[in-house]
């Protein structure tokens, strides 16, 4: 298991090399990578603030729930903070499970919870200044399906 | 003595990331009332509690939660990770 909250970029290839491989209890590996998207065509950067200490604690709790519920063999969560450019990686999750459905579901569960329960706050930087990204009702609603 | 931390626009509105507060407040809501009474910038930051979240010793909590034994309180807007 790996949980990392970091400013530096990560290398998806390096992280996934060997993940879930060579063991008898894994039949499926899923990975998701979040990328900084520009919806307005004018975004210069995305800044992520977080709560050091609580961030790692909150992610560990969410990961623990996913491991328990989907009997995961392994998990990776990497989440970046600081100033990120458009097109850069923000975060990734990877899950290794016995079956495909469990690996996909657990990855979605992790994403839904990281969005609304891990203490990160996004701020968009553009030509007219900065603006905090508001949490969406649908992100909160997404938790209800779990 | 309790450490009070602010994040995102709450931090910007209040103008500092953390402070140590001398308080006898029994609950988070009581602490919020004490802070609001201090200065307009606190009043502005805490005007709408439905727009805020609170964590006690780094775990999410409710505004009616007790502060007994709590060392660190953090106020912030709903999270936008992922």
Structure description:
The complex is a heterodimer of chains A (146) and B (82). Chain A has 4 helices and 8 strands; from the N terminus they run E-H-E-E-H-E-E-E-H-E-E-H. Chain A is 32% helix and 34% strand. Chain A has a single domain, classed as Alpha-Beta Complex (Aldehyde Oxidoreductase, domain 3). In chain A, the strands form 2 sheets. A 4-stranded mixed beta sheet of chain A has the order 1-4-6-2. With 146 residues, chain A is an alpha+beta fold. The two termini of chain A are 22 Å apart. Chain B has one domain (2-76): Ubiquitin-like (UB roll) (Roll). Chain B is of the alpha+beta class. Chain B has a 5-stranded mixed beta sheet. The mean pLDDT of chain B is 97. Chain B is globular, with a radius of gyration of 12 Å. Chain A binds chain B through residues 34, 48-51, 53-54, 57-58, 79, 90-91, 111, 114-123, 132-135, 139-140, and chain B through 5, 7-9, 55, 58-60, 74, 76-82.
């Amino acid at each position: 298991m790996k949980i990392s909250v970091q400013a530096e970029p990560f290398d998806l290839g390096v992280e996934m090399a060997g993940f879930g491989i060579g063991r008898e209890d894994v039949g499926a590996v899923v990975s998701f990578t979040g990328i900084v998207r520009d919806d307005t065509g004018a975004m210069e950067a995305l800044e992520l603030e977080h709560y050091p200490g609580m961030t790692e604690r909150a992610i560990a709790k969410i990961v623990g729930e996913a491991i328990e519920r989907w009997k995961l063999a392994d998990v990776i969560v990497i989440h970046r903070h600081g100033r990120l450019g458009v097109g850069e990686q923000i975060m990734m999750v990877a899950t290794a499970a016995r079956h495909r459905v469990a690996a996909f579901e657990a990855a979605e569960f992790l994403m839904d919870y990281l969005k609304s329960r891990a203490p990160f706050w996004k701020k968009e930087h553009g030509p007219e200044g900065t603006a905090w990204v508001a949490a969406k009702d649908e992100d909160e609603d997404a938790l209800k399906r779990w | 003595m309790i450490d009070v931390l602010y994040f995102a626009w709450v931090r910007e509105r209040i103008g500092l990331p953390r402070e140590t507060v001398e308080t006898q407040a029994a609950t988070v809501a009581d602490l919020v009332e004490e802070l609001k009474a201090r200065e307009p910038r606190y009043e502005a930051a805490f005007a709408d509690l439905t727009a805020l979240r609170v964590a006690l010793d780094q775990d999410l909590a409710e505004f009616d939660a007790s502060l007994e034994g709590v060392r660190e309180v953090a106020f912030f807007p709903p999270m936008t990770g992922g």
